[in-house]
Design goal:
The protein has 19 helices and 45 strands. The protein is α+β, with helices and mostly antiparallel strands. The structure holds adenosine-5'-diphosphate (ADP) and magnesium ion. The site of adenosine-5'-diphosphate has 17 residues, from helix 3. The site of magnesium ion (MG) has 6 residues, from helix 3.
Length: about 850
């Protein structure tokens, strides 16, 4: 379905399109429901927890790419039936791409932004996958077609650039060698506005050439200097086409820039309190994306006539570079990509709100033309005049040496200028072509190698970056590691990879892998320490988290489908080796298709965090932080007074190795902290490169590896209250269970019905019918005698504990005094409770619920 909204004549509003993709594997596994519907250019989203209030938004275009499609023989996704509602790549290009192309040819700047959460389909729309080419490659095809078609009327020059903004640093994706630490600089000039200094601009004259450059760029993006796993969810990719058209007849030059921006994932970082403050102090998770939001909001306010003092373009690299695209001289299109699934509701609605603001922005696009050609003509005419005067001077034979000299100087100067204007492009193109031929040769060679040798293929969390690195294992012995010093070494980067990490041996068409001392190598989920033969499609993890698929000799390959070995597959396999299966989280009788969606979410969180935890541990080790991270699946049900056992959540346990201090971090907190750790780690590496420069030790409240000590919930025990309803005394030895089912301690507790003055009631006071309590006064005492076998204190003696509990409807929990350094501490606590008037609610509570006794761990003394 392609629906076109009403045109607004005379105004250059940012055009906004929304597109909803098919369910992905995770969403299908979880039995997700589609909460998006479309009619014409209106999109409606349903809050899954509230069937009352669907929200509708109207955009310029709405693309239904969720259902109603099939895959044709060439792998293209097309509508199931002709004229079906499915919007394929072609129809998106027709609406958005054509316009951009047309604009650019007319001399306008044009900008296309893809916005949306990670995995929502930004890159699919922008770049595309395989035969389903996205906007950029199709635009490129059509651009060169148009150039050829218009050859007679104008001469065209196209320059291509590709860059990445990661953490406010600009990386040139077209130049491998000269990567300066800290990235390229963004400068400002009166005429040009903001630009990236020294960015490589490659002159191009064909679409295949641009495609090769993009392939090259993606490869650099994947293997960039950062020691982390490349991940487009936090970086923006910018592709810039500069188009220069010289109309010789009209003596006019038109110049236009096409900016194509695949933005970082828009997902919100949900943090609050002190964590949010800490992030503000460091770098914001994605300053560029936040600032883009602020700029868009400000511009949207301007458009509706609100008074806006300041538009914060200068606050981030991305907004500096997009200044003319936003509220300036450009025709701009935003495509907002959406997941259809109910579990993504929060993100999707936030994307729609963002897109709605963007829709209001008004630009003032003008044709960028300059009379360059006229200048050439004028220079030529002037030279003709100069020559005439020279010859006249000669004829007249007057002594005019000075004048002759001056005329000759002018003549040369002008000629040089003309030549500069005319030949620069030719030269550029020649050089670029030579360069490109080399690259092309490399790529052809790579294709040949793939047909001859086994190789390993990078598998990345981001599908767009998967499979771009191929490392060939030819016959003989090959070192693999950071080092590239010998001709027999294969160089790989990555966290936890050693100079010499492992050895590949390829003999008699068999390939073996041997890890070298102290290095981590995992094959199909299991760590190996000895020479291991590899089979076609084995999964390798080198160091903390560099994942590769092994591709055997061509004879072993057959027609198998490799696509199922994606990043999730690697991580699930690893989790399985640790004993974490999807079905082990659930009731063992459950069939996968009936899996509880919340457990699925926990499982996917687990496999998502697992590699991040491995990376955090490696960083901690290298930076000598002395802390260790471990993933835990926590049973939330522990604090449920009904004892329900359903909800689970992921936490990260952080332990300091020296004094065994422990922190428990939520998922969100860990993800944020990991980002700050990466920043610290990269700074550290940059400083190491600059040699020496000792740093002042980091203040603890800024150190992402550290936190102030807090009491830790170790576990809980349930003391059922039912006996109180009958006024029967109860004495129990309660097992205090930790979140993973461990026995943390035994707690001796009593519930004693008593008189208002605290005298224990006897057998005569036992009730046959609890309803007799209704409306009457109830007194009882909770006695906590002793804790035995405290695991927490056994592990480290500098610790203590405290018991916390909350009775019925009391707001504040009560705590026993802290007891320290003792594995079997006496508590000797007696608490008297009184209800002057026993209500139905209280009685029901006594009959059905338990008092949750929480065991809190104290540390630091
Ligand atoms: P993003 O760039 O937003 O993180 P991607 O574009 O990489 O997300 O999409 C994630 C996955 O969803 C990819 O495997 C991609 O093939 C698939 N996908 C996205 N949009 C579509 C679509 N319109 N049709 C089919 N598959 C899609
Ligand atoms: Mg992407």
């Amino acid at each position: 379905m392609r629906a076109k909204g009403a045109e607004m004549p005379g105004k250059d509003c940012v055009k906004v399109a929304v597109r909803v993709r098919p369910f992905n594997k995770r969403e299908r596994d979880a039995g997700s429901h589609c909460i998006i519907s479309m009619a014409s250019s209106t999109i409606t989203i349903q809050d899954p927890r509230n069937s009352q209030s669907p929200r509708s938004f109207c955009f310029d275009y709405a693309y239904w790419s969720h259902s109603g499609f099939t895959r044709d023989r060439s792998g293209l996704y097309v509508p199931e039936e002709p004229g079906g509602r499915y919007a394929d790549q072609g129809s998106v290009f027709q609406d958005l791409g054509e316009g951009i192309l047309e604009n650019a040819l007319q001399g306008y700047n044009a900008t296309l932004l893809a916005y949306g959460q990670t995995g929502s389909g930004k890159s699919y729309s922008m770049v595309g996958y395989g035969p389903n080419k996205g906007l950029v490659p199709t635009l490129c095809d059509r651009l060169f077609q148009a150039i050829r078609a218009n050859q007679d009327s104008r001469q065209c020059q196209v320059f291509f650039s590709m860059l990445e903004i990661y953490n406010e640093q600009v990386v040139d994706l077209l130049s491998r060698g000269s990567r300066s630490p800290g990235g390229l600089r963004v400068r400002e000039e009166q005429q040009r506005g903001f630009y990236v200094e020294g960015l490589r601009r490659v002159p191009c004259d064909s679409a295949p050439q641009v495609e090769q450059l993009m392939e090259q760029g993606t490869r650099i993006r994947t293997t960039a200097t950062t020691h982390m796993n490349a991940n487009s969810s936090r970086s923006h990719m910018l592709i810039i086409f500069q188009l220069k058209q010289i109309f010789s007849k009209e003596s006019i030059t038109k110049q236009s820039n096409i900016n194509l921006v695949d933005l970082a994932g828009s997902e919100r970082q949900r943090v609050s309190g002190s964590e949010a403050d800490r992030l503000k102090e460091g770098t914001a998770i994605n300053l560029s994306l936040t600032t883009l939001g602020n700029v868009i909001s400000a511009l949207a306010d301007v458009a509706v006539g609100k008074k806006v003092v300041h538009i914060p373009y200068r606050d981030s690299v991305l907004t500096k570079l997009l200044q003319s695209a936003l509220g300036g001289n450009s025709r701009t299109v935003m495509i907002a990509a959406l997941s259809p699934a109910d579990i993504c509701y929060e993100e999707s609605i936030s994307t729609l709100r963002y897109a709605e603001r963007a829709k209001r922005i008004q630009n003032r696009a003008v044709v960028n033309e300059s009379p360059t050609e006229r200048l050439v003509k004028e220079l030529k005419a002037e030279n003709a005049r100069l020559l005439q005067r020279l010859s006249r001077l000669g004829q007249e034979g007057r002594r005019a040496e000075d004048e002759t000299k001056e005329l000759r100087r002018l003549l040369t100067h002008n000629e040089l200028q003309i030549r500069a204007i005319q030949t620069l492009w030719e030269q550029h193109l020649q050089e670029a072509l030579k360069d490109w031929e080399q690259q092309y040769a490399t790529i052809t060679q790579e294709r040949r190698m793939m047909q001859m040798h086994p190789y390993i293929l990078n598998i990345n969390e981001d599908t767009q970056l998967s499979g771009v690195v191929k490392l060939f294992i030819q016959e003989g012995e090959w070192d693999i590691g950071l080092s590239d010093s010998s001709p027999r070494s294969i160089s790989v980067r990555g966290l936890g990879i050693q100079e010499r990490h492992a050895v590949f041996i390829n003999v008699q068409r068999r390939v073996y892998l041997t890890p070298l001392a102290g290095s981590k190598v995992i094959v199909n989920g299991t760590p190996i320490s000895q020479k291991t033969e590899l089979q076609h499609l084995d999964r390798l993890i080198l160091g903390s988290n560099s994942t590769y698929l092994f591709i055997g000799y061509p004879s072993e390959r057959g027609g198998d489908d490799w696509s199922r070995y994606d990043y999730d597959y690697f991580q699930s396999e690893l989790a399985a080796a640790e004993g974490i299966h999807l079905h082990s989280l659930c009731d063992s009788s459950a069939v996968p298709s009936q899996t509880d969606p919340s457990l699925l979410a926990v499982f996917y969180d687990y496999i998502k965090l697992m590699p991040m935890v491995a990376e955090a541990n490696q960083m901690s080790q290298e930076l000598h932080k002395g802390v260790e991270f471990k993933l835990e699946i926590k049973n939330l049900a522990l604090s449920d007074s009904k004892g329900h056992d359903l909800e689970k959540d992921i936490t990260v346990r952080v332990t300091s190795l020296e004094n065994k201090q422990v922190w428990l971090w939520s998922k969100a907190k860990f993800v944020n902290r990991k980002f700050l750790m990466e920043e610290l780690y990269q700074q550290h590496h940059m400083e190491q490169k600059r040699e020496g420069a000792a740093r002042a030790p980091m203040p603890r409240d800024r150190d992402p590896f550290w936190d102030p000590l807090e009491p830790l919930l170790l576990g809980s025990a349930h003391l059922w209250l039912q006996s109180l309803a009958f006024r029967i005394a109860l004495e129990e030895q309660l097992e205090v269970l930790g979140s993973e089912g461990t026995e943390e301690a035994i707690l001796q507790a009593q519930l004693l019905p008593c008189s208002p003055t605290g005298l224990t009631l006897g057998e005569d006071d036992i009730l046959i019918d609890p309803s007799e309590l209704l409306g009457r006064r109830l007194d009882f005492q909770l006695v906590l005698d002793q804790c035995c076998g405290l695991r927490w204190v056994k592990q480290a003696r500098n610790r203590g504990v405290q018991i916390g509990f909350r009775m019925f409807d009391s707001a504040q929990p009560l705590y026993t005094p802290a007891v320290w350094h003792n594995v079997n501490p006496l508590l000797d606590q007696r608490v008297h409770f009184t209800s002057l008037h026993t209500s139905q609610g209280l009685l029901e509570h006594l009959q059905t619920s338990a008092l949750v006794l929480e065991l809190w761990g104290l540390q630091g003394k």
